[in-house]
Amino acid sequence: MSKIRLFLENFLVYGVGGIISKIIPVIMIPLITRLMPDTSSFGISDMCTTVVSFGSALAIMGMYDAMYRLFFEKDEEEYQKDICSTALLFTLLTSVTVFLIMVLLKDFISEKFFGDSRYSYLVYVTAMATLIGATNSIVSAPTRMQNKRKVFLIMNTITPLLSYSIAIPMLLKGYYVEALPVAGMIAAITGEAVFLLLNHKWFHVARFNIKYLKQL
After folding, report:
1. Rounded distance, CA 192 to CA 136, Å?
2. How far apart are CA 83 and CA 22, in angstroms?
3. How far apart are CA 35 and CA 20, in angstroms?
4. Closest CA to 80 of 161, 25, 142
5. Pick from 73, 78, 88, 47: nearest CA to 205
6. Residue 165 in 3-state DSSP?
7. Full DSSP string of 5-56
8. CB 156 within 8 A of CB 216
């Protein structure tokens, strides 16, 4: 009976957390679009999100799922710390690589994805957001692995609220193209800082293990 209750509680908490993180943007979109002078500004901002999602997927390379799978193979904290540390260092390496490639190809990415090379400065923002987003998935993983549901729920509520609390003042000041990407990047950095503070004991450079990396 306790397992069924635990399942239902996790289902509700993580489900609600996921819904909150998605429903806040849905609620805010009408306000955001009203503050923008035309749809092209919103389109460029939305394309930034697409580029970040694509870049993050390349940077993570399935490491989050592999880390989650191996974490529970042994109920030994030292082993679990080795898995977390190895996954983070590998993801950090791939994320930095993707970041550098995006910066080097900023003019190409700007022209092909944003429609004009004059938006190349946005590539720096998307590259940083990609770097943060990829590593954040690893840094935040121990919170879910330890089933800290309240933290998960709070962070899924605060992060989008923080993003829009930054974006709206920027839009009011006329930064129509930059507002959403910059706000999203700042919110992501803040979220990663919080999770790193909460989960720092699970990560250490000295715990990198090439044997576990092969398994991952």
Report:
1. 5
2. 30
3. 23
4. 142
5. 88
6. helix
7. HHHHHHHHHHHHHHHHHHHHHHHHHHHHHHHSSSHHHHHHHHHHHHHHHHHH
8. no
106-113 and 77-104 helices, crossing angle to 10°: 80
Three-class SS of residue 209? coil
**Ordered alpha helix ranges (H), the chain:** 2-35, 39-60, 63-71, 77-104, 106-113, 120-139, 141-145, 149-172, 179-199, 210-215
Q: Return d(Cα 196, Cα 80) in angstroms, integer.
A: 16
Torsion of CA 156, 160, 161, 163, to 10 degrees: 140
**Tens-digit pLDDT string for the chain (216 aa):** 455 554 555 555 556 556 666 777 778 888 888 888 887 888 888 888 889 988 888 888 888 888 888 888 888 889 999 999 999 999 999 999 999 999 999 999 988 888 878 888 899 999 999 999 889 989 988 888 887 878 877 888 888 889 999 999 999 998 998 899 999 999 999 999 999 999 999 999 888 888 888 887
Hey, what are 87's tokens? 């996954």
Tokens at 160, concatenated: 């989008």
Cβ distance 135 to 88 under 8 Å? yes
